[in-house]
Amino acid sequence: MVFLSEFLGAEVVDVEQRRVGRVRDVTATVIEPYPVVTGIVVSRRRGEVVPWSQVRTFAAREVALRQNAESTSRVAANEADVWLGRDVLDKQVIDTDGRRVVRVNDLQLVESGGKMMLVGADIGVRGLLRRLGVESLGKGLVRLFRRDLPMVLVSWDVVQPLQGEGGPDAVRLRISGKRISKLHPADLADIVEELSAKERRAIFAQLSDEVAADTLEELEPEDQRSVIENMDAERASEILEEMGPDEAADLLADLSEERARQ
Q1: pTM, two decimal places
Q2: Which residues does 252 contact at the CB level (< 8 Å), separation at least 6?
Q3: Contact call for residues 89 and 36 (beta carbons, < 8 A)
Q4: What's 195's DSSP letter?
Q5: Is 176-262 in the same CATH topology as 2-85?
Q6: Distance between CA atoms of 55 and 92, rounded to whole angstroms?
Q7: What does the alpha-carbon distance between residue 103 and residue 262 come to, in Å, rounded to a whole number?
Q8: What percent of the chain has pLDDT over 90?
Q9: At 44, phi and psi to the nearest 5?
Q10: How many Cα atoms sit within 13 Å of 136 on the Cβ side?
Q11: Residue 165 class from Cβ within 10 Å (0-12 exposed, 13-18 middle, 19+ buried)?
Q12: Helix, strand, or coil here: 8?
């Protein structure tokens, strides 16, 4: 088990122990249930990636390649891949098991069957300390007070990344909305209340009209209004039709006259 923070900045050496560069980021292809690492970014500016198949070992913050520098291929980054540091670290995700919105402080990677997979998100303080290089110091200070500093890990198979609409990151981070739609509407409502208007729109876009209507009924009136006003008129109408008559009437009464007519 390793963490992304241990990869970032690690020295890359070839089979002859000659320095090739440093790990600037790690790319992965998003598949269910666990994304698979596809390469290491050695140049952000040029978007150059060394395929993961050319990595021999990783230890002591050093990535060792299988071949010499001259034989090691560098390819252009696949536009469909996620850059774990750039696209996932510090981003908000939904823990569909704990039914909460959390921020990713570090990422847990595990090698299995010759593949390196993203299996978890560290959402605790320890993840932040690890990235700052002071994890051991933090653990030592906490022990002085006879306390522990546990890792707070969320398995990636219960994580739903939050994506906006229309941007390139939305495509790269998109994962099946099945995880979200399985939540109870009351739990969904608790999550939605913590999100921005753009993030709410992205969540409702993944819900069926029936689930969206049930979730909307669980929200406070001002949040209901915010969701509907930031949704296209046709979809809003379809969701309102699935709501109970009284709930739909109350919501329409809270909307502006122009929006209600739509």
Answers
A1: 0.65
A2: 240, 260
A3: no
A4: S
A5: no
A6: 30
A7: 37
A8: 28
A9: -65, -45
A10: 1
A11: exposed
A12: coil
pLDDT score at 73? 83
User: Length of the chain in residues, anyone?
Assistant: 262
Q: Which two tokens stand for residue 204?
A: 């409702």
Q: Is pLDDT at 61 greater than 90 in this prediction?
A: no
Express the helix, strand and coil content of the chain in percent, nearest 5 each.
40, 25, 35
Q: Beta 11-13 vs 62-65: how paired, if at all?
A: parallel
Q: Identify which of 198, 176, 179, 180 has the alpha carbon closest to the alpha carbon of residue 189.
A: 180
253 versus 170: which is more confidently predicted?
Answer: 253
**How high is the pLDDT of residue 170?**
36
63 token code pair: 């990535």
Per-residue pLDDT, averaged over 171-189, amounts to 63
pLDDT tens per residue, range 73-128: 888 888 889 999 998 888 888 776 666 777 889 999 999 888 999 999 888 888 78
Q: 3-class SS at 232?
A: coil
| Domain regions of the chain by residue span | 2-85, 176-262
Fold of the 2-85 domain: SH3 type barrels. (2.30.30)
What CATH number does domain 176-262 carry, 3.30.930.10, 1.20.1730.10, 1.25.60.10, 3.40.190.10?
A: 1.25.60.10
Which pairing describes strands 48-51 and 75-76: parallel, antiparallel, or unpaired? antiparallel
Report how far residue 29's alpha carbon sits from residue 92's, in angstroms, rounded to the nearest whole number.
Answer: 19
First to last CA, the chain: 53
CA angle 41, 46, 49 (to 5 degrees): 25
The Cα 177–Cα 171 span in angstroms is 13
One-letter amino acid identity for 72? T
